[in-house]
Design a protein that fits this description.
The chain is an alpha/beta fold. The chain is 51% helix and 13% strand. The structure holds guanosine-5'-triphosphate and magnesium ion.
Length: 302
Amino acid sequence: MFKRVGEVFRGIASRIAETVSKKELTEEDLERVFKEVELPLVESDVAYDVLPVLFEELKRRLIGSKVSRLGEGGLVGLMKEALTSILSNVEPKQDLIDHIKASGARPYVVVFLGVNGVGKTTTIAKVAYKLMKAGLRPAVVAADTFRAGAQEQLALHAERLGVPFFRGKYGADPAAVAKDAVTHFAKRGLDAVLIDTAGRMHVDVDLVEELRKIVRVVRPHMKILVLDALTGNDALEQVRYFDRAVGFDAVILTKMDADARGGCALTLSLLLQRPIVYVGTGQSYEDLEVFRARDVVERILS
Ligand SMILES: Nc1nc2c(ncn2[C@@H]2O[C@H](COP(=O)(O)OP(=O)(O)OP(=O)(O)O)[C@@H](O)[C@H]2O)c(=O)[nH]1
Ligand SMILES: [Mg+2]
């Protein structure tokens, strides 16, 4: 039922090659093909809202090309270039670890946000691992004091990695826990503090208020929104939700290894206006890669 975004783009190339054989590609030719691929694109997790932007970008790159000379292979090549250019909107200018290294702030404090199950806790462990490999000393903090098991999960990663861990009592004020943790680790001279937050809409506490309070009290150097590539279109809703709630500086897109459709990264690249610093590509600590437009295009169009 669901289409891979790569297949849809191949389809666009072959439709153009079939229907426009002799002349230069015109806006009308493209409009016609775009009408046909709207639904398949949405089915491959490209958000409906971004279709106009995507089509404009493709038009800009394709109008005037000599289809007869390019052939279908050449058109796929052009499509790859167009996608690479779109995806490079969200390429990070600097690796997060290098940025933390270069920053004078010690400890450098990062708050991780995201709805439940997207991979926040796993991603924090992966980032801690990267920091350690770069010779920095990270610590991790469980500021989800609500969900049973949330703190233990992070504690287990911390133990495996040999990274200092801080938690509060269940039901304690997450902002107070986070603040105490930063003070504690600042005294111990650590380089980075990674704060895990709750992802669930609580019954009795407003998550938005909780996150706002954490950010107000801790004043992190960076807020990272964790998104799951498998959420597809819903990722856009999550972006808007967290933007309204507390704002964020960058995204980590998890579960790219399990994402067959591939539209989520494309949607984000058209709307996010902030970098995707890493992509999650598996469940082990090494499986966190710098977001590279070219790699993602190869992943979806190879
Ligand atoms: N395949 C794959 N699985 C991942 C990736 N990142 C996280 N996961 C898995 O996704 C599941 C949920 O991850 P968690 O880190 O517990 O998610 P969370 O956001 O902390 O969840 P809550 O604490 O409930 O809000 C786990 O089984 C992880 O192993 C990834 O990049 N690829
Ligand atoms: Mg968690």
